[in-house]
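Supplementary Note 2. Why include the ligand at all?

Several targets in our set were suspected to adopt different conformations when bound, so apo predictions alone were not considered sufficient. For every target with a known small-molecule partner we therefore ran a joint prediction. The input for adenosine-5'-diphosphate is given below.
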Amino acid sequence: MPETPDISGTPRTAQGSEAAAGGPGRSGAATDSGGADASAAHGKTGATIELENLTKQYPGSAAPAVDSVNMEIKAGEIVIFVGPSGCGKSTTLKMINRLIEPTGGRIRIAGEDVTDMDPVKLRRKIGYAIQASGLFPHMTVARNIALVPKMVGWPKSKIAARVEEMLDLVGLDPGEFHGRYPRQLSGGQQQRVGVARALAADPPVLLMDEPFGAVDPITRDHLQDELIRLQRELHKTIVFVTHDFDEAIKLGDRIAVLRERSRIAQFDTPEAILTNPADDFVSGFVGAGAALKRLNLTRVRDVEITEYPTVKIDDPLQDVFDKLRSGSTNEILLLDRRGRPYKWLRRGDLMRAKGSLARAGTLVADTVTRDATLRDALEAVLTDNTGRVAVTGRRGEYEGVVDMETLMNSVHELLEADRLDAIEHQHHLEEVRAHQTHADQEGDGGGARA
Ligand SMILES: Nc1ncnc2c1ncn2[C@@H]1O[C@H](COP(=O)(O)OP(=O)(O)O)[C@@H](O)[C@H]1O
Ligand SMILES: [Mg+2]
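The joint prediction is reproduced in token form.
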């Protein structure tokens, strides 16, 4: 595509070599050596981004908002900046396209130093999408998308075709949406147009600042899925800012957890950050999410299933009474004729039963099998409101119960085990590093080091 000015350099080569050394990214873009070929057919692939001592001191502030950030982002990967509000995520991001001018440090894109490049020219080569889409309200969808291609002088026919292609790409029917104004779109649709506009001139780099922050959770989920799908096709280098750690986990090939002044607390794959948080700040940030994630990763079969007093629907009422009175529980589980959980019976229920179990007790609302996740189990415990959930076999027959306390203790133990694993892993890494340093010193006698 000779019409679109290149960021210069050789982004494809950069992707090939950089990406081959990449970590276990999940998009496949950063690690799949076939990525460069696949995207070659599609125009520009991503470009590397290097930040070197990047600093922003706002006039009149005592401390810099961004303090000497060093970071290398590989061609074709999605890197997420995540961190608390005010830590400098947006400032760091906007320095990459120089919407905010750095007061120190360098920025290189595809190997080219763009720190002193004309910012307007630079911005035409970098897609930018923000919260609430940032569309121009007085322009139609088509004109919004055509903005940058027009500025860089694409011929009219090519722009028109590109607009249709982009609408299609983000899942909007070109015929229907082409001529609408932003106010005639839902929040999610506006956001899609915002992404289409950012991608219109086929830039190698896409910057996104909390782009899905203003839409409802279900739409956000869809937009995230769409972005993952898009990226599988496009292999852009995407830097994405969010304060939502779940979003970071879902979208990121790598996540940079930032603390105040945009200092990097940890820069690694989502898996590594979850299982091996670098310090208390990172664990604190991951914190609550880790417990919920654990609930999803663990099955009922992995926790203790206990016995619970049961009676059969045909048992004589006196037996039921006796069992409840002699047992240690306030409740008893009534099974139907096929041995399936049917009702929870309390002592008071029996008093009111007046000789028949037909109308006594509370129906069992939810059960789980051994294959259910602990999250399902917790859901069932909360639904049934008995403090436990009945576990059933393949034909729905009763096998035991898992109670709330067991659930809590299991998650707690699993998290503790994760933490110990992480510490062990850390020790191992330190040993490897120490070994490496030792070998380096011995190996070349302090000479040139690669
Ligand atoms: N134009 C500005 N002038 C002065 N201070 C600013 C300006 N923009 C942002 N800041 C300050 O810089 C810090 C980082 O802001 P920002 O990058 O927007 O954080 P984040 O995106 O992580 O919420 C904050 O303390 C903020 O108040
Ligand atoms: Mg921000």
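The pocket of adenosine-5'-diphosphate (ligand 1) is lined by residues 58, 61, 65, 83, 85-91 (CB under 6 Å). The longest strand covers residues 49-56. Comparable summaries for the other entries are listed in the accompanying table.
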